[in-house]
Amino acid sequence: MNYTLHQLAIFEKIASLRSVTKAAEAMFLSQPAVSIQLKNFQNQFSVSLFEVIGRQVYITEFGEEIAVAARKILEQAQAITYSSQIYEGKVAGKLKIAIVSTAKYAMPHLLSDFIHQHDAVDLVMDVTNKAAVLKSLENNEADLAMVSTIPKKLDIERIELMKNKLFLVAGKDVQVKDGDISKKDFENLPLIFREQGSATRIAMEKYISSNKLITSKRMELTSNEAVKQALIAGLGVSIMPLIGIKNPLATHDLQIIQAKGLPIESHWNLIWLKSKNQSVVVKAFINYVQEHKADLIKEHFGWFEEY
User: Fold this and answer.
1) Are residues 167 and 256 located together in one domain of the fold?
2) Band of residue 55 on the pLDDT scale cut at 50, 70, 90
3) Contact between residue 110 and residue 64 where contact means Cβ atoms under 8 Å apart
4) Which of 17, 97, 99, 122 could potentially form a cystine with 22 if both were Cys, beta carbons 3.0 to 4.6 Å apart?
5) Average per-residue pLDDT for the chain
6) Burial of 19 by CB count in 10 Å (0-12 exposed, 13-18 middle, 19+ buried)?
7) Is the CB of residue 218 less than 8 Å from the CB of residue 192?
8) Using CA atoms, how far apart are residues 54 and 51, in angstroms rounded to an integer?
9) How many independent structural domains does the chain possess?
């Protein structure tokens, strides 16, 4: 047998995604190129690695075993590369971060200069809701997490970042009287919620409960971006983090409606498990954030002070 690391990587990606097309897209290769490498890889085995039924790729039991082995080989090969780069004096390795969906408007600004300074660092970032982020951190699937509420059940260390402000937000066509929106008007507006497990959803439900509001018309969407587009389309109102609506506020596609008890304020935090033995890469990023956070917050999030 004379298969290559490239062929192993292609087959592992196909096995993971169950699609030649998706594997080609993920690896930035043409579909014909991936298909040729898959065929060449299969030709080195007398047992089928996969079956194609219709347009669907099905990995055989033998193929699954090969995919697991390929994953381990690729990880070991990558570890060799990292070790070599570390001996050259570079900061090298994987940086695995899990963030809540609204933090996607902030984390790239914190990462940008660090990643450019350290070209031997590979970033893996999972964008999901609060419940999944904390589970990823607890299961050691992520080195760091960015959240707006501190988990009570995990023993963590943290760096406090910029403010997190949640306002009542609506599309430009929603009209309310001057001053705070009345309780009656609030209750008559259709409310758009984030999904269960979202920190924004929890904050919104807590606000409704503490103010004894009665809600009847409501819908649930599974991302901050989806909520934002629904508001712009005039489908309702929602309580949203300021961090994700800078541009539509500037273009007046969205508006902030003054309401009693709002904004809800907290802070974004970079957190990690206190017990985790952090890699050189993670330690370097933590030190970078601690050293530069004031300048980064002022440069990228100074506009918060307008609201």
Assistant:
1) yes
2) confident
3) no
4) 17
5) 91
6) middle
7) yes
8) 10
9) 3
